[in-house]
From TrEMBL:
Molecular-function GO terms, alphabetical: histidinol-phosphate transaminase activity; pyridoxal phosphate binding
Lineage: Bacteria, Bacillati, Actinomycetota, Actinomycetes, Micrococcales
Enzyme class: transferase
Pfam families (alphabetical): Aminotran_1_2
Entry protein name: Histidinol-phosphate aminotransferase
Family: Belongs to the class-II pyridoxal-phosphate-dependent aminotransferase family. Histidinol-phosphate aminotransferase subfamily.
Length: 362
């Protein structure tokens, strides 16, 4: 049988592992930070009607510029953004890949602060971009001084600040973003995949005027409860959007994706109605695990990074066997848990409580 090592694979892909969070059909799935609430039925019906209309036209290619969707996204983001400042693709992973295709690539570099989103180094490898992972301080919180020092030392072509940060939940303060922008000459991406959960901070979209190297990346996959549709987007200067047009594949957003996303945004309030609930479940989970003796890192997102597990892999496997999926990101002593519905969150609390100290089998 042929194996990968028999193929003339690109050097920088040799030895890499594909992104691969388990997708078991379990009763409690809290491992990829989805909104676990189903979308409201009246919204589903409206989306189906929009899809039905779109289907009748799929003999033709879709609107390459997805103008209606960009208008809708601009309206959703607010801050007087125009459609010419908004871009979208099949998930913010694709948006970020396009950013790297346009502004990074061979001979160039991408910097971020680890632990952070595991796709960044994979997107770097896929675009032949050098990856620079700079370790966060012990509390995972970025400071203007730390960020400026790293950017001045490494002078990356692209830097990504993830706020709230996956997998630590750490929020990102505006002073850090402003200091970072002024510290280097490359493109600065703020990954706001979890922004809707952070009620204390305004989106970095507010910082766009006068900053043409700033990109704010968002997604409909998390708070917006739309992960299955694959719709990520960004806001930036119109010139940045022009750069992304050079690398996107023609018609990359299908007519069905455009129709579904545009319809969902019409119901933004209903789609986001569960956010406060999820945050309350996150806080409940934090309280319960703290009481059990675990270390819970402060989170502005819909998940928690939890320390104090004697053997994270064993705890992960034990919960998986019980039909509860959480995430082991190979951070020593730690596991990441998404806040779900009241019932799901209760199930994971009960399962961990039933284990012995440190998550050992009781
Ligand atoms: C989940 C996530 C994304 C991307 O999700 P898409 O589904 O591709 O939009 C991007 N960034 C971070 C930090 C994430 O956690």
């Amino acid at each position: 049988m042929t194996s990968l090592s028999d193929l003339p694979l690109r050097d920088n892909l040799v030895g890499q592992q594909p992104y691969g969070a388990p997708q078991d059909a379990v009763r409690v799935s809290l491992n990829v930070n989805e909104n676990t609430h189903p979308i409201p039925e009246h919204v589903a019906i409206d989306i189906v009607q929009s899809l039905a209309r779109a289907v009748t036209g799929v003999n033709r290619y879709p609107d390459r510029e997805f103008s209606e969707l960009r208008d809708a996204l601009a309206g959703y983001l607010g801050h007087d953004l125009g459609a010419d400042q908004v871009w979208a693709a099949n998930g913010s992973n694709e948006v970020l890949q396009q950013v790297l295709q346009a502004f990074a690539g061979p001979g160039r570099s991408l910097l971020s602060f680890t632990p952070t989103y595991s796709m960044y180094p994979l997107l770097a490898a896929g675009t032949d971009t050098a990856w620079i992972g700079v370790e966060r301080p012990d509390d995972y919180a970025l400071t203007p001084e730390g960020v400026v020092a790293a950017l001045r030392e490494h002078r990356p072509d692209v830097a990504i600040l993830c706020g709230p940060n996956n997998p630590t939940g750490t929020t990102l303060d505006r002073e850090v973003i402003l200091a970072a922008y002024d510290a280097f000459e490359g493109m600065l991406v703020i990954d706001e995949a979890y922004q809707e959960f952070d009620t204390e901070r305004e989106s970095a979209v507010a910082l766009l005027p006068g900053r043409h190297r700033l990109i704010v990346s968002r997604t409909m996959s998390k708070a917006f409860a739309f992960a299955g549709v694959r719709l990520g987007y960004l806001a930036a200067d119109p010139a940045v959007i022009d750069a992304l047009r050079l690398v996107r594949l023609p018609y990359h957003l299908s007519a069905l994706t455009q129709a579904a996303a545009t319809a969902a945004i019409r119901h933004a309030d209903a789609m986001l109605a569960t956010v406060a609930d999820i945050s309350a479940q996150r806080d409940r989970l934090a309280g319960a695990l703290t009481e059990l003796g675990y270390t819970v890192h402060p989170s502005g997102a819909n998940f928690l990074l939890v320390g104090g597990f004697a053997d994270p892999e064993a705890t992960f496997a034990e919960l998986r066997a019980q039909g509860i999926l959480i995430r082991n990101l190979s951070i020593p002593g730690h596991l990441r848990i998404t806040a779900g519905t009241e019932a799901e969150t209760g199930a994971v609390i009960d399962a961990i409580a039933a284990l012995g100290p440190g998550g050992a089998r009781g």
